[in-house]
Amino acid sequence: MSPEGLPGWLEPVLRAAETVEPLQLSRFLPPSDGGGRQSAVLILFGEGEHGPELLLMERAGSLRSHAGQPAFPGGALDPEDGDPATDGPLRAALREAQEETGLEPGGVQLFGVLPKLYIPVSGFVVTPVLGWWRDPSPVGAVDPNETARVFTVPVADLTDPANRATALHPSGHKGPAFLVESTLVWGFTAGVIDRLLHYAGWERPWDRTKQVPLDRRA
């Protein structure tokens, strides 16, 4: 993992990763007793036709959990990934991204990690791993039973106030959401994106009263 040679526009993200505190990202933090299943996601920044962009995937609609939900590539650590406290999450993030999207890991430069977060509904302790897509490779849904599609979203679309809203869950929980690429990005993924945009200084003022209701299957 190294920050050397990153494009200048990624420097705010690097600075945010080096200084952000766990509670600045989420109120859901790993259990103090060490419980939870260790996992990692790859937050991969590339540069496309419309400038800086993020790689996302949409989970298959047939999955038991998080069906049809846009997400970062990622998943649980395997024993061969190594120590969850050191390089294990880095290896897991790249391995899962390759398995889910066909991404070539050799073209990715990992440059940072965010504090571990917790997803209570699934019990996952998640390490967000930051990467620069130095040498882009073709990507797509490797297993349609797991992944419906793979796509990139321009950062300019994520910061556009017209594409921002507050997702309202039937439970009453509210959280940030993005209406981009013909889908609604919400939940854990949207929360991490929202905080990254904020602490990188890319966030633009948006209407926080604009709500998008979620159905009970969400």
Quick recap:
The chain is α+β, with helices and mostly antiparallel strands and 218 residues long.
Descriptive overview:
This protein has about 220 residues and is an alpha+beta fold. It contains 5 helices and 12 strands. The protein has helices at about 10-20, 20-25, 90-100, 155-160, 185-200; strands at about 35-50, 50-60, 70, 75, 110-115, 115-120, 125-135, 145-155, 165-170, 175-180, 185, 210-215. Strands 1, 2, 3, 4, 5, 6, 7 and 8 form an 8-stranded mixed beta sheet that branches. A 4-stranded mixed beta sheet has the order 11-10-9-12. Strand 6 (about 115-120) and strand 7 form a beta hairpin. The longest helix is centred in the middle third of the chain and has 14 residues, at about 90-100. The relative contact order is 0.20. The model has no long low-confidence stretch (mean pLDDT about 90).
**What is the chain-wise order of helices and strands?**
HHEEEEHEEEEHEEEHE
Number of helices: 5
Counting DSSP E segments of at least 2 residues, the number of strands comes to 12
Estimated helix fraction: 10-25%
Low-confidence stretches: none
**What's the Cα radius of gyration?**
16 Å
Mean pLDDT: 92
Shape: globular
Major β-sheet annotation: 8 strands, mixed
Supply the helix-strand structural class: alpha+beta
Percent of residues in beta strands? 25-35%
Cα distance spanning the termini: 35 Å
Keywords:
globular; alpha+beta; four-stranded mixed sheet; single chain; 218 residues
Q: How would the blueprint of this fold be written?
A:
Layout: H1 11-19, H2 22-25, E1 37-48, E2 51-59, E3 70-71, E4 74-76, H3 88-101, E5 108-113, E6 117-119, E7 124-133, E8 147-154, H4 155-159, E9 164-168, E10 174-180, E11 183-185, H5 187-199, E12 211-213
Parallel strand pairs: 1-7, 9-12
Antiparallel strand pairs: 1-2, 1-4, 2-3, 2-8, 5-7, 6-7, 9-10, 10-11
